[in-house]
Amino acid sequence: MNHAFPCGTLPLDFVGTLRARRNAAPMEKLATPELLDDWFVESGMLDLAPGANEADLTIALELREAIYDLVAARLDDRPLPAEAVAEVNLQASGLPVTLRLGPDGTTRTGSVSQGLAALARETVEILGGDEGALLRECTRPECTQVYLDRSRGHRREWCAMKTCGNRVKAAAYRARQHSVKS
User: pTM of the full predicted structure?
Assistant: First the structure.
């Protein structure tokens, strides 16, 4: 598997394909059209690779950054950037992913633009609805993953306990052990 899905919300996991945004050299997880194809299949959005090309990849990265700009504005309590709103609305107007019922259950197929339309529509629902108030950014300094905090007390700190939460807790434990020995 080439991609991680810690958020449980596909548009926010899609934003996370550019890892460590604040670093001098962030890690691009969608460096090729093939990696974009992999993302759609690994996310469960599509059952078959859509056959992305370089133009599709460029559009996908533009949408990803527009979603991030909107989320960042919402997190900072700023007005939503007009260019990002326009990009998300443009993509949201596309055709939906095709669902078909067959003898083995449901299959999801579509083009890159259909997958991007689904991501954009879910972004509109999140940012335009009550869930927008649940947006958070992981508190691990090296991580810039955003997620919806649906925890009971809305005090979730990390994108995922398995990764970032574990790293922060292990580092705190090591620091406590080091200070006891000193």
Answer: 0.86
In Å, what is the CA distance from 94 to each residue of 14, 100, 101, 132, 172? 18, 18, 22, 23, 47
What crossing angle do the helices spanning 82-92 and 112-128 adopt, rounded to 10°?
A: 130
Say what the pLDDT of residue 170 is: 63
Question: For residue 161, what are the CA distances in angstroms to 39, 165, 166, 178?
Answer: 22, 4, 6, 23
pLDDT exceeds cutoff 80 at 168: no
Q: Do residues 147 and 176 touch, judged by C-beta distance below 8 A?
A: no
Secondary structure of residue 2 in the 3-state scheme: coil
And the tokens for 34? 């093939």
Q: Count other Cβ atoms within 10 Å, centred on residue 119.
A: 25
The one-character DSSP state at 43 is T
Cα gap 45→42, rounded to integer Å:
8
